[in-house]
Amino acid sequence: MVANPAAAAAVVHAWTALQDVMDPEIPVLSVVDLGLIRRLEVDGAGTLEVDLAPTYSGCPAMAVIRGAVETALRAAGLGPVRINDVLAPAWTSDWLSAEGRQKLLRYGIAPPVTAVDTPRGIWRAPTIVRCPRCDSASTEELSHFGSTPCKALYRCQGCLEPFEHFKCI
Amino acid sequence: MSAAADELGIAHFDYLLQLADTSLVLGQRLGELIGHAPALEEDLGLANIALDLIGQARLLLSHAGAIEARGRTEDQLAFLRTQDEFRNLVLAEQPNGDFACTITRQLLIDAWQLELHEWLQQSSDAQLAAIAAKAIKETRYHFRFSASWLVRLGDGTAESRQRAQQALQQLWPYTREMFEEQEADRLLAREGVAPPLAALESAWRARVAGVLGEATLEQPAATPYRWHGRRGVHSEHLGHLLAEMQYLQRAYPGAQW
After folding, report:
1. Which of A130, B35, B74, B141 has the lowest tally of Cβ within 10 angstroms?
2. Chain-chain contact of B44 with A169 (C-beta, under 8 angstroms)
């Protein structure tokens, strides 16, 4: 594919187009920020192939995201498009881009803290989740689970505001 | 197809149904609690766990349909099989009961899935290994939730302790079938598809004993009676659950969302 300049340009164009496809539940994050797009390539027949990594097995937003990705790529004139769900390697919150983490913080959601290098990381709540509003390190976990599969519920003991934390998986 | 390959294919399909149905049925049970859990955080927690389990069941059922190669989709397998064709653990279909009962059932199954998913990441079935590698991240959160709650209930007030112990007495006999080895289990273990059940059992026992110890609960004695949900023999509760879960597809066959 490298030898084909038209295909290479289409891939670059596709990456740009996907930066505007937002997560329906966390509308400040694009599918690129979330690290959901694992591969973009134009095959021999001219079809744009998209490898998409689902986040949680049961996340209801995935069907919407899949549809939005396809719509955006077609609207950008990049069709035909084929979307492949890729399970392995399993999506991890480590794939959130640095820019995505900054956007989350500004949106009021504490980004994932630690890298998920060992399973042990999940057994305990991360040692310090800083409050996205006042940056206090004095926070407590209220619930392992939140309004979507990817978030947990916290409370800041500094400013007393509740906030959400994007879980590390 | 040779007779041996055929036997393996049937065992493989059946095994995937066992895993999928346990997740699906437990997910459906937990779904009954949405809007009814004792507190908002628990409502969110149980709903999230239900969602993960149903998501895992979808992946497993789709894969089972592919292995069976008769064109059955995840929806057909979930909504158009009868009670006798379900392969879930009988434990998963037990009613929610009180909160102690819901949590105890969850802990016993979470610990089982934790050990199972850990092992299945190395399964010779690559798709099953990929599903397990994804599921285990979720299962760890489920276990953390149910284990921490069982410790709080067991090592809590006299009332909560008594209820947790009672739930354990009631549900413990259903755990035996997790490790009841059939010829198909030995075949799948030899082929590297599924774990040897003896190894799975000792890991599960150690994990559950750790939580019960911390919860100051007593492990009930083994009982002779065995359930065989994995072979399609269920308690009366499954039929009622399926009647509700499958209602729409039974009343309006082929209805699309």
Report:
1. B35
2. no
Check B59 against A169: CB less than 8 A apart.
Answer: no
Q: Return the pLDDT at B53.
A: 98
Q: What is the pLDDT of residues B156-200, one digit of tens each?
A: 999 999 999 999 999 999 999 999 999 999 999 999 999 999 999
3-state percent breakdown (helix, strand, coil) of chain B, nearest 5: 75, 0, 25
CATH class of the domain whose range is B3-251:
mainly alpha
The mean pLDDT of chain A is 88
Would the CB atoms of B45 and A142 count as touching at under 8 Å? no
Q: Does any domain span residue A18?
A: yes
- Distance (Å, whole) CA A90 – CA A74: 27
ipTM above 0.90, yes or no: no
Within-domain flag for A91? no
Between strands A109-110 and A162-166, the pairing is: parallel
Percent of chain A whose predicted confidence (pLDDT) is above 70: 90
Rounded to 5 degrees, what are φ and ψ at A142?
Answer: -90, -35
pLDDT of residue B224: 82
Q: Give the predicted TM-score (pTM) of the model.
A: 0.92
Q: Does some domain include residue A54?
A: yes
Write the CATH number for A56: 3.30.300.130
Average pLDDT of chain B is 95
**Domain ends where: A85, A118, A138?**
A85
Contact B48 A57 (CB under 8 A): no
Q: Do A57 and B59 touch (CB under 8 A)?
A: yes
Residues A76 and A127 in one domain: no
Interface residues of B toward A, Cβ cutoff 8 Å, are: 41, 44-45, 47-49, 51-56, 58-59, 126-127, 129-131, 133-138, 140-141, 144-145
For A4, B184, B198, the CA distances from B189, given in Å and listed in that order, are 48, 9, 11
Looking at the fold, whether A35 and A69 belong to one and the same domain comes out as yes
Q: Which of A92, A153, A167 sits opposite B41 (nearest CB)?
A: A153
Residues in chain B: 257
Above 70 in pLDDT, residue A3?
no
Q: Which residues form the domain of A138? A: 96-166
Task: Return the HEC string of A9-65.
Answer: HHHHHHHHHHCCCECCCCCCCECCCCCCEEEEEECCCCCEEEEECCCCCCCCHHHHH
- Chain segment B191-231, per-residue pLDDT in tens: 999 999 999 999 999 999 999 999 999 999 988 878 999 99
| A49 and A105 both lie in a single domain | no
Residue of B nearest to A93 (CA): B137
Mutation target for A interface from B137, B138, B151, B257: give the one with most A CBs within 10 A: B137
